[in-house]
Amino acid sequence: MRKRSATVRVARWSALHPWRAIIGWLVFVVLCLGGGIAAGMNSATSQDFRVGEAGRAEALAVEGGVQLRSTEQVLIRAASGPLDETAADAAVKDVTARMKALPEVASVAEPVRSADGRVLRVQVELNGSEQEDQEHVPPLRAQTEEAAKAHPDLVIEETGDASVSKGVDGRRNDDLKFSEAITLPITLITLAVVFGSVVMVGVPLLLAVTSIMATMGLAMVASHLLPDTGVGMSMILLIGMAVGVDYTLFYLKREREERARAGGRLTSEALVEAAAATAGRAIVVSGLAVIVSTTALYLAGDVIFDSLATGTILVVAVAVLSSVTVLPALLVKLGRRTERRAQRRAAKRRDQGKPVRTYEEKKPGKVWRALLTPARKHPALTLGLSVLVMLGLALPALNMTLKNPARDSFSREIPAMKEYDRLLDAFPEQRVRHLVVVRAEASRAGEVTAALRELAREAQEDRLFSKRSGAPLIRTSDDRGTTTLELNTPHPTYSEEAEDSLEHLRADYLPTTVGTLPGVETAVTGEVARGVDYVAHQNDKLPIVLGFLLLMTFLMTLYAFRSAVLALLGVGLNLLSAASALGLLVLVFQGRWAEDLLSFVSLGGISSRVPLFLFVILFGLSTDYQVFVVSRIREAALNGVPTRQAVLDGIASSAKIVTSAAIVMVTVFASFVMLHILEMKQMGFVLAAAVLLDAFVIRVMILPAALLLLGRLTWWPSGAVRRAQERSAGRFEGPGGGFEGPGGGFAAEGAGEGSDGWFEQHSKEGSLPHSG
Q1: Per-residue pLDDT tens for 17-64?
Q2: Taking phi first (over 0 means left), then psi (-120 to 50 degrees means alpha), and beta for anything else, what does residue 379 get?
């Protein structure tokens, strides 16, 4: 007797004890969510984000207590016409008094007048860390609103780092709700088209939603090991809905096929066990492939990628768990309901003297047969043209420029950003701050200060820096060991001018002034420095991450199919798919032609996190599709079907389910293009494009053409297919013509090469319960 795999054993237990499995799953979800709420979320702190020289500078400044602090700017201007001096002075005194009375405020600066004299600016420096600043914004803005009411003839408004961050977070939350509102109806429609049943539509959604709920709780617990950056929950929603529905669809479709082939001769329990032997294993392997691929993000050495990886891994693992545990129980309950209906319909037809109809398996549609025609008739030409098209789409990626999106790229629908624009119109020098940090012996504080003054004088003669009236802004720590100089530039954070100003500062001005002092440690930080250093850090890590990713994809495919040829083909197709999607991303977002169409402000580049994120997630999802499709082909080949026919039948029979899953994923990802955060727009666009290309070009054109050209070489070095086809005359034939169909029938689940099929094995054991 061949030993059943763990997947089959778990599904069998679940099928035989459905209520226990269902209640057990609900208890698991409640425990995960309750445990997470009890543990709370451990959010990342500012030191978790530090990278490169900018990170070192921030650490030095924080240690000395002279770090850059968040500032809020209160703007005072006339509603129309010139600014009334008396009214403006009264408003300044009122605002200053109100702000100084708040415990969240560290200091309030003297008012500064704009160059045209029409606007006064009062700078308010906040206490606490960057993470606390958003909590400090409401009382400040409340006081600003009270001041505006007290001076109705003036316009008094507030903007700043914390206001913008809070506005962005609020907009992100609203966007996610909007995305969910779009995604769910389209997912429902897609599932209804696939299954034609309201009940069957509810199963994938139920499992996806409960999986997401359980994962959110687990993510809160995991945040105490790897702090959360705020993006983990977004990734859980994004990936959880996609793979949760994806895995359930595949299992449901397979159970329906087994029911059709059995023709009412087997019970729901036996049919679910049969589906577990094929679809269950494919789900576990594909889920494991996504998880293993996603672990590559940890090698990036970045807290945001750690958070993305943790959310993705947890939600995929939970989705797989739900598919192989509670899903079989739900299918048995639904199957019994279907059986009772079928028996009532059969009895009624017999009473009426009509022939009894059995559930028939739907053959692959004409559309998919037609789509496969080019690969079937002209595989070499189809392969060549398809690869050329994909390479053509990938070409723009060669000109990709990585940028770190900052405040300038945020949506102007955020009120604080409109106020921010008015601030920059009046005070352009407030756009970017560079902070030069110097650590030296306390006795040398005077020399350091003199050198920093010289540096400030040289920098202000450079057109890349803002001109400052009065003394440069220099601060020295209480122990006189750390001194900082703040310099401004009027250029957007992502512009070449802003990056050039940082380069001049680091490479020219700093070495020739403070750098000439012996025994002095220097570093530069600020928004631009953080972005530049982050991109450099990612470029350093990229070869390691991609190398690990390629190796793991090869090994996972090799494990799934015992074929080095398929493993190499899978790596190549994944690279082609990712490169093509990146090319489209550059074409759309790096230029300005699509700004109005998609409502964004171009950075002149791509957000630095997007390409690496794309490669890792797409490699996982593409391997996911590869496992589903090639599993069907291998099953047929292991049942002795010639490789050519196995390829065509396997792809045709899995096309509808893969396409349906792709539509769900594309819907989820594409909804992010409508969001207001540029980075989320780019992520949603590139993932949606990649999945579309993967499902409709890679899986329909390139993969079948390549496999048809490879023939039996596809399975090298495994000899299982060759031996199975040599034994093809001995395939199992069941009552009424057997259970073989366009997918290759019930092939072995991979437990042993050359197996003659799951049904043959269990029929001999007498372990298949029959209905009636």
Answers
A1: 999 999 999 999 999 999 999 999 988 887 888 899 999 999 999 899
A2: alpha
Distance CA 131, CA 154 (A): 32
Contacts of 29 (CB under 8 A, 6+ apart): 210, 213, 214, 217
Q: Are 240 and 113 contained in the same domain?
A: no
Same domain, 237 and 282: yes
In this structure, how many other beta carbons lie within 10 angstroms of the beta carbon of residue 288?
Answer: 19
Helix, strand, coil percentages for the chain (3-state, nearest 5) = 70, 10, 25
Domain check: are 280 and 211 in the same one?
A: yes
Q: What percent of the chain has pLDDT over 70?
A: 87
Query: What residue has token string 């977002």?
Result: 589
List Cβ neighbours of 581 (8 Å cut-off, separation of 6 or more).
614, 618, 686, 687, 689, 690, 693
Number of domains in the chain: 3
By residue range, what is the domain housing residue 33? 1-40+197-341
Question: Where are any strands of DSSP class E within 571-675?
Answer: 606-607
Task: Please name which of 211, 241, 305, 368 lies closest in space to residue 670, comparing C-alpha atoms.
Answer: 241
**Residues facing residue 525 across a β-bridge:** 435
Does 29 lie in the same domain as 12? yes
**In a shared domain, residues 304 and 268:** yes
Cα–Cα distances (Å) from 257 to 229, 313, 711, 772, in that order, read 44, 30, 27, 20
Averaged confidence pLDDT in the chain: 83
- State the Cα–Cα distance between residues 10 and 19, nearest whole angstrom: 14
pTM: 0.80
Instruction: Tell whether 481 and 435 lie within a shared domain.
Output: yes
- Of 287, 214, 210, nearest in space to 247 by CA: 287
Query: At residue 149, does pLDDT exceed 90?
Result: yes
